[in-house]
Amino acid sequence: MDRTEPWQLRAAFARRLSDMYGREVPAYTTLLRVAHEVNQEVVARDGAAAERLGSIARVTAERHGAIRLGTPAELAQVATVFAAMGMEPVGFYDLREAASPVPVVSTAFRPVRADELARNPFRVFTSVLTPGDRRFFTADLQARLETFLAGRELFPPALLDLAARAEAESGLSPDDAGRFLDLATAAFELSPEPVDRAWYDELGAVSAVAADIGGVRSTHVNHLTPRVLDIDALYARMTARGTTMIDDIQGPPAWEGPDVLLRQTSFRALAEPRSFRLPDGSVTTGDLRVRFGEVEARGAALTREGRAVYDAAVAEVAAMRLPTAAARQEAAQQVWRRSFPATEEGLFDAGLAYAEHRVVDGRTVRVPVVYEDFLPQSAAGIFASNLSADATTDRSEEGLGLDAAWLAGAVGREVHDPFDLYAAQAAASPAPA
Ligand code: OOG
Ligand code: NI
C-alpha cells in the first residue's frame, strides 16, 4: 500500500501552514508575492549561479516558522510531532542573554541530512519559557504560571499517537497522513477561545513573550518566513508598497563579498481581533499583536573559526551604538571588509566556511554548504521588534543555568550541534585525491 513518507508529511505540512497563514494574515500573501517576484528576477539575471545555494524549487517552497511553548513536557510533545516529519532539534539558543532579553531558551527543528534538506528544508524555531528565572519572574508568579501551564493541552492525544506511529514506521497511510496533517495544522492555528484579560495583562507586565506563551491555553505559529535571493531588493520593494519594515536587515550587511549565514528582516504584527474574558465573566472584543511577517536570505555556513570572526564583527558594530540603520550598515560594511576575505575561495582557504566539492563540466569546484540555522542576536531582535513592551528584568538576580544539556533533557532527544552537521556534510564530498 502507498505510504506518505516523513518528507512528504513535512512538505505537505509546510504548504498547509502557508495556506492557513495566507488566509489569516493578508500581509504574508503580499510578502510571498514580492519574494516570488524578486526570486524570478534573480534567476533571470544570474541563471545557474542563482541556484548554487539551493534549487529554485527548494527555495520557492522553503519556509521557517516559529512557535513558543511553556514547559519541557510541551517541548517533548512537539518533538514527537516534528519527528514524524523528519525534523530533529538542532542547536541551543539562549535569548535571556541577548541585548533585549527574552525569558526563553530555544532550538530549531529541521531535517539534518543534505538529501532531506533538498527535498524540503522546513524548519521551526521553537522556544520554551523559563518561569524559574528570577530575573523575570517572582516565585509567586512562577508557581501560578506553572499551574496554569500544567493544566492545558496543546497537542491532542490523537495527534501524538499518529506522530509516534509515523516516526516508528517511517510514514503513515494516506488516510492517517491526512488526519495527522489536519490535527497538526490545527494545533498551530490561532485559537478563537477567549483570553483571560487579567491573567494575560499580569504576565504582560513582566514580559510580552510570557503573556503570549503563558497567557493563553494554546500555541500558534507567530510567523512563517519565505526565503528570498535578494533581501535588499525585497526590503526596498516592500517599503515602496507601503509596508513598514523594521529599521534594519539583521545579520551580515549587504556588501560585495560572499554571502554568509543568514540575513533577515520583518514587519510588525498587525492588531488582530480577539475575544477577552473579563474578571466579571463577560466577554468583549479587543485585539492583540501576535503574528508578524519575516523574510530571510541564506548564505554560507561558517566554521567555528568563521563564526568567531562573525560574532566579533557584530559585537564591534554594536559597540559603536550608531543611531540609524544607514550608519550601522555603513559601519558594518567597513568592519566586514577588514574581517572577512573578499571572495568565497578566500573564505574556504582560510578555513572560515564549509565547502562541498562538485564536479561541473569535468572540473571540481567548491560550493558553500548552506547555513540552515538561526542567529541568536537576530532572533532576539526579531522578538523585540515585534513586542509591544520589553521584558522587565531584575539583573541583580541570578539567572537559571540552562544549557544545551538541559534542553536535550527537556526534549528527550539528542540536540544536534549545527557545526557537526555542517562538517559531516562537507566531509561527504571530499576534494578529489
Ligand atoms: C522566534 C524569533 C526567532 C528567527 O528567524 O530568528 C526567529 C519568535 O519570535 O518566536 O524566528
Ligand atoms: Ni524567524
TrEMBL record:
It comes from the Bacteria. The keyword Endoplasmic reticulum does not apply. One of its GO terms (molecular function) is dioxygenase activity. Its EC number is 1.13.11.93. Keywords: Dioxygenase, Iron, Oxidoreductase. Its cofactor is Fe(2+). Belongs to the 2-oxoadipate dioxygenase/decarboxylase family. This is 2-oxoadipate dioxygenase/decarboxylase.
